[in-house]
Amino acid sequence: MTDDGVVDITVLGAGPTGLAAAYYAGHRDASVRIVESLEQIGGQVAAVYPEKHVFDVAGYPKILAQDLVDLCAEQGLQYGADVRLGEEVQTLERGSRNGEEFLSVTTDKGNAFRSRALIITAGHGAFEPRKLGIDDIDVWEGRGLHYFVRQKDVFRDSACVIVGGGDSALDWTLGLQDTARLPIALVHRRDRFRALEASVNEAKELENKGHVRILTPCEIREIHGDGSIQAVSIENTATGEVDRVDCDALITLLGFHSHLGAIINWGLELEGKRQIKVDATTMETNLPLVYAAGDVAGYPGKITLITIGMAEAAIAANNAIAAIRGEKVQPKYSTD
Ligand SMILES: Cc1cc2nc3c(=O)[nH]c(=O)nc-3n(C[C@H](O)[C@H](O)[C@H](O)COP(=O)(O)OP(=O)(O)OC[C@H]3O[C@@H](n4cnc5c(N)ncnc54)[C@H](O)[C@@H]3O)c2cc1C
């Protein structure tokens, strides 16, 4: 970092892609600052599925998601990146001082961070869970209503109602079998689940054993409790029958609303509605010295996977460094 606080690269977002970008930049002796809106690093992996196993990251046949991002952090931060947590980046401006041009991002905390290049690794942007359409639903947050399963132990011996039809709902119906009180009730508004067939079949087998109660096509109509959740009313939408199910935990896994937020106003060309268009050979956006990588970066044929984001981070960091230094893009091996 120079005396006036200008670093070589600002990395926007501390998910696996941002941490990989920090690694590649640090490995090339570039100074890095990471700005992350959450109070923790690890992106979706740490926020959404820390206790799931990941099987498709090269070199790891099976690894707990949180362990994976812990290792990404160890690797990515080893060169001393300046990490700013709990600050959402909102604006991007360009400036110059003493003849040197720089980019400046400002955050919701009012801080301005300057750098020679910017790599946006914002994933789906700031994300928020989809909520049940029940009046005053927010009142139950912290009182038995959960949008994530961060630590399985929170649900030890709890009577759980899980709502959703996708992978997360099925994964946690199976994943909490050794923790929660059985049976776990799984509520979905349609008869068919979107989740992986193998998970749905496993849940049906567990239903035969009395370990899962599958309630479809059903919707939660009311939450009951005195201070904390004690039961929910569940309507079968085919028959109109309403069943009251006792529970301590209502886990709604209905996906997320995500939006790029203020980033959308920066004049970036988009790929579809949710991704920033990049040249896939450099990961540069339409704005000079602004790169994007990971889930947020779009080009024809893009696949949103951790491994792909890490590879794009390497491309973005190497191209950013070459542009800042006026060099040719070249890989530098890490082996010593
Ligand atoms: C349930 C689930 C299971 C998955 N399983 C797998 C799997 O098995 N294998 C696989 O490869 N992929 C999997 N994925 C996808 C994988 O998690 C993503 O591809 C990966 O997290 C993308 O990493 P990223 O760093 O690009 O974005 P993210 O992980 O989304 O991180 C982006 C970060 O940027 C921050 N941010 C956003 N906007 C701002 C802002 N304005 N200011 C500051 N910070 C900001 C966010 O808070 C976030 O921390 C799964 C995803 C889900 C939801």
Task: Provide a descriptive summary of the structure in words.
The chain is of the alpha/beta class. It is built from six helices and 22 strands. α1 runs parallel beside α3 and α1 (16-27) packs parallel to α6 (306-325). The protein is elongated, with a radius of gyration of 23 Å. The model has no long low-confidence stretch (mean pLDDT 94).
- Biggest sheet details: 7 strands, mixed
Helix/sheet category: alpha/beta
Count of helical segments? 6
The percent of residues in helical segments reads: 10-25%
Unreliable stretches, pLDDT < 50, 5 or more residues? Answer: none
Mean pLDDT score: 94
Bound molecules: flavin-adenine dinucleotide
Radius of gyration: 23 Å
Fraction in beta strands = 25-35%
How would you spell out the order of helices and strands? EHEHEEHEEEEEEEHEHEEEEEEEEEEH
Global morphology: elongated
β-strand number: 22
How far apart the termini lie comes to 25 Å
Could you outline the blueprint of secondary structure elements for this entry?
Elements: E1 7-12, H1 16-27, E2 32-36, H2 43-48, E3 53-54, E4 63-64, H3 65-76, E5 82-85, E6 89-97, E7 100-107, E8 112-120, E9 126-129, E10 145-146, E11 159-163, H4 167-175, E12 181-187, H5 197-208, E13 212-215, E14 218-225, E15 229-236, E16 242-246, E17 249-252, E18 256-259, E19 270-271, E20 275-277, E21 290-292, E22 297-298, H6 306-325
Parallel strand pairs: 1-2, 1-8, 2-5, 8-21, 10-17, 11-12, 11-17, 12-13, 20-22
Antiparallel strand pairs: 3-4, 6-7, 7-8, 9-18, 14-15, 15-16, 19-20
Helix pairs in contact: 1-3, 1-6, 4-5
The structure holds flavin-adenine dinucleotide.
Residues 12-18, 35-38, 43-45, 48-49, 54, 56, 88-89, 121-126, 168, 261, 263, 294-295, 304-307, 309 line the site of flavin-adenine dinucleotide.
